[in-house]
């Protein structure tokens, strides 16, 4: 019985000591080992994010419109090609329709990727001026700066 009481008293002592240590760590003083955070203009960063997202949306809309127009043109070219009675002419027209489409799509994707890279570069420069490090968001390299690889 004495051992049990002694064990309970020791446990209470240990838990009490731990709570005092925890209280010291949660004090309002500045931690000695942590870097102090510089003041960040959150409104300016939020504005920069909004501008970035608006520009990305516009770039994607332009890409989609260009590819949509190329698809419509390809449809017309292929329809006309299949109406040709001469086999050599028909094959050449079909091949030309597909080549034109692929050329337009490739150029549109290249322009889109470059635009996205420029948008992210501008954004990173902007947040540096606001003393933000951008670590709260994934890098543009992983989130679209390279463009959508499924569009190639």
Features:
single chain, 152 residues, mainly alpha, 3 helices, 71% helix, 0% strand
Please characterize this protein's 3D structure:
By secondary structure, the protein is mainly alpha-helical. The protein is 71% helix and 0% strand. It contains three helices and no strands. It has helices at residues 2-25, 42-82, 87-129. The radius of gyration is 31 Å and the shape is elongated. Mean pLDDT is 78; it is low at 33-37 and 146-152.
Secondary structure elements and their pairing?
Blueprint: H1 2-25, H2 42-82, H3 87-129
Helix pairs in contact: 2-3
Structural class: mainly alpha
Assembly of the depicted chains: single chain
Distance between the termini: 78 Å
Shape: elongated
Write down the Rg: 31 Å
Strand content: under 5%
Q: Give average pLDDT, whole number.
A: 78
Short synopsis of the structure:
The protein is an all-alpha fold and 152 residues long.
């Amino acid at each position: 019985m004495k051992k049990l009481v002694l064990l309970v008293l020791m446990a209470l002592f240990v838990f009490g000591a731990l709570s005092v240590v925890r209280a010291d760590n949660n004090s309002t003083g500045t931690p000695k080992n942590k870097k102090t955070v510089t003041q960040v203009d959150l409104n300016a960063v939020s504005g920069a994010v909004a501008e970035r997202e608006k520009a990305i949306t516009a770039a994607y809309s332009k890409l989609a419109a260009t590819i949509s127009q190329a698809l419509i043109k390809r449809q017309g070219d292929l329809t006309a090609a299949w109406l040709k009675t001469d086999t050599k002419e028909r094959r050449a027209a079909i091949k030309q329709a597909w080549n034109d489409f692929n050329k337009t799509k490739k150029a549109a994707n290249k322009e889109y990727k470059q635009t996205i890279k420029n948008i992210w570069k501008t954004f990173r420069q902007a947040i540096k001026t606001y003393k933000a490090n951008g670590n709260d968001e994934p890098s543009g390299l992983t989130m679209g700066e390279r463009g959508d690889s499924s569009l190639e």
